[in-house]
Amino acid sequence: MKSRAYIIIGMTLLLFASCGQQYHAEKTVEAFVEANAENPEAMTHRDFADLGITRHLNDSVISIMRERGAQGFKKGITYGQMPEGDLFYLRMRYVHEGDTLQNTFYLNQELTEVVAFK
């Protein structure tokens, strides 16, 4: 009976920890969008997918994403230091001038900076 209680407590703590990461990542992406979108007020009905992690990006892919940017965002965005190791990613779906669009934002391990997006 005690082991069942420990399992439930452990699962609850994991759930709250992951919710905190999701919230922190969403706030980081929101701040990035507000600072770098050409017209952030026109990006309505913002909705986020679950936070994920990837190992499949290397420096050259990140550099290409940084150069290309995305439609509706300013050119010449300044990013932080090139990250090492795994990256988190967060997809944001939104409505812009009647069209539903989506961007994927890649964040550092601390969830404090967007390091690239597409």
Task: Report on this structure.
By secondary structure, this protein is an alpha+beta fold. The protein is built from two helices and five strands. Strands 1, 2, 3, 4 and 5 form a five-stranded antiparallel sheet that branches. A hairpin with a 6-residue loop joins strand 4 (99-107) and strand 5 (114-117). The protein is globular. Residues 10-17 have low confidence and may be disordered.
Key features of this structure:
2 helices; 5 strands; alpha+beta; 118 residues
List the helices and strands and how they pair.
Layout: H1 2-36, E1 43-48, E2 52-54, H2 59-68, E3 87-96, E4 99-107, E5 114-117
Antiparallel strand pairs: 1-3, 2-3, 3-4, 4-5
The biggest sheet, with number of strands, parallel, antiparallel or mixed sense and barrel status, is: 5 strands, antiparallel
Which radius of gyration do the C-alpha atoms yield? 17 Å
* Number of E-type strands: 5
Distance between the termini: 49 Å
Judging from the principal axes of the Cα atoms, what is the shape?
Answer: globular
Total helical segments? 2
Low-confidence stretches: 10-17
Secondary-structure element order, N to C: HEEHEEE
Helix content: 25-40%
